[in-house]
Amino acid sequence: MIEANDKRWARVKVLRTINEALEKAFARDKKK
Length: 32
Description:
By secondary structure, the chain is mainly α. It has one helix and no strands.
C-alpha cells in the first residue's frame, strides 16, 4: 500500500509541476 501511495503522490507532484509550468507559459504569452 505504501508503494502505491508513493506512486500516486509522485504522479500528483508531476502533474502540479506541469500545471505550474503551463500557467507560467500562458502568462508569458498573454504579456506579449
